[in-house]
Write a structure and sequence with these properties.
It is a single chain. The chain has helices at residues 9-18, 31-35, 40-54, 60-79, 84-102, 106-125, 130-148, 152-160, 165-175, 183-202, 206-214, 232-243, 251-258, 264-281, 292-304, 313-330, 333-350, 355-372, 375-388, 409-418. By secondary structure, the protein is mainly α. Helix 15 (292-304) runs parallel beside helix 17 (333-350). It is flat, with a radius of gyration of 26 Å.
Length: 419
């Protein structure tokens, strides 16, 4: 018999296909309900989440953002409770099941692991006394062991993410007691370092890349020593040093030695500083050395094309735009044509991730191009703007808070084109 309340045959078929007689929440997850039993709102929320997580047809794309919000907002209630370590373990097991279900979907696995790292970082930050360390050590050590056991491709977002394992390791080492075992975090951090170095060694050596593409604008000009810290030669030395450190016998001592080696954020920080150093190394003002800004722009393009530097991509786009504006003011169209074309290509690739920044760059650049009054430059700019394409609304429905899901660049695009 047809349900009169359901008008859609497709919806009815989907509900029948995904229907189950009973959803059973695993016993080891019930602690998450029991700890907040006296807080009706929290208890209702976590109960709903556990029900959905335990459903055989769970949708992790919808669940993980909700889990992240609930965990980070309310983890204090759990950490202060005597059963706090059990709660941490339960949350982590739940999130690792999301990683397992993700399979080959690296983006979904990365989202789950980001929450694991955020939860771990939050837990470590409240472990101030030796008693806290002893209480939470088994739960945290299990996290470190499970992370280290993941496939390298799955672990790469942890290596390059916004919650660095290095910071967690430094905090633990700073607060550790004389008898505390740090072999778990030491082994994980060693794995993180090795994956990090292997990633950068698979990329082009930055000095070789730069000199091969710099061409005429680098004649009689050298900057080899500026790239030394991230050269393949130096990274191999770091990798050999990490590989030689034994983590099993004395975790604290091993961790102390590993923390001296540069992590992913250290390398990102160096790349972030390098474009300005390329300008300083010229020893000239921009007016005297007309190609100093060109060299800087060239390396900024390299940053944008390096996936492992995604943390600084948005600010790099802004810096590229500022540099190109300077070149528009002082150089001929022929000298900056390739930079203009490359800039538009990068803006088009990144408009979905950084819509406001990309479109603002086009607007500001356009104002400078028209001020210059060069017909070939104006024509090229307009052609590239048209090729850039228009950002349509792309309405995809509504979210859980009844807000429209659409392309955030749409309204900015209208304003920029009108301008």
């Amino acid at each position: 018999m047809r349900d009169p309340a359901i008008d859609s045959d497709a919806l009815r078929a989907n509900l029948e296909e995904t229907a189950v007689d009973e959803v059973v929440i695993a016993d080891d997850l019930l602690v998450l309900q029991e700890i907040v039993a006296d807080f009706r709102g929290l208890n209702d929320t976590v109960s709903g989440l556990l029900y959905e997580v335990s459903h055989p047809y769970r949708n992790w794309w919808l669940l993980l953002p909700r889990l992240r919000s609930f965990i980070l907002k309310n983890i204090g209630h759990y950490l202060r409770h005597p059963r706090g370590p059990e709660a941490v373990s339960a949350f982590v097991r739940l999130l690792f099941s999301g990683v397992k279900d993700a399979g080959r979907n690296r983006e979904l696995a990365a989202l789950a692991l980001e929450i694991v790292l955020a939860l771990t970082e939050k837990t470590v930050s409240v472990m101030i006394t030796p008693g806290d360390l002893l209480r939470f050590h088994p739960a945290l050590d299990r996290v470190f062991v499970d992370l280290a056991a993941l496939d390298r491709e799955v672990l790469l977002p942890v290596v390059q993410g916004r919650h660095p394992v290095k910071k967690i390791a430094e905090t633990l080492l700073h607060r550790v007691g004389p008898d505390h075992d740090l072999t778990g975090i030491a082994a994980l951090f060693k794995t993180i370092l090795l994956i990090n170095y292997d990633y950068w060694l698979a990329e082009d050596d930055p000095l070789e890349w730069f000199t091969a593409r710099c061409g005429d604008i680098c004649q009689g000009w050298k900057a080899g020593r500026l790239f030394a810290a991230v050269s393949h030669e130096q990274l191999r030395l770091h990798r050999e040093a990490a590989l030689a450190i034994e983590t099993i016998r004395d975790g604290a001592a091993a961790l102390s030695r590993l923390l001296v080696l540069p992590g992913h954020l250290d390398i990102v920080r160096f790349y972030r500083q390098l474009p300005e150093k390329l300008m300083e190394e010229s020893g000239e003002t921009l007016n005297a050395d007309r190609f100093a800004e060109n060299r800087k722009l060239l390396f900024l393009f390299r940053i944008m094309e390096t996936r492992g530097l995604f943390l600084i991509h948005e600010e790099t786009l802004r810096e590229i735009n500022r540099g190109l504006i300077k070149l528009v003011r002082i150089q001929s169209f022929e000298e900056i044509e390739s930079f203009l074309l490359t800039t538009f290509r990068l803006l088009k690739v990144n408009v979905r991730r950084y819509p406001h920044t990309s479109l603002q760059c086009i607007q500001v650049l356009g104002a400078e191009v028209f001020k210059r009054g060069n017909s070939r430059l104006v024509e090229s700019f307009l052609w590239e703007t048209v090729r850039f394409g228009f950002q349509y609304p792309g309405f995809r429905g509504i979210d859980e808070e009844w807000q429209p899901l659409s392309n955030p660049a749409h309204l900015d695009n209208i304003r920029v084109w009108l301008s």
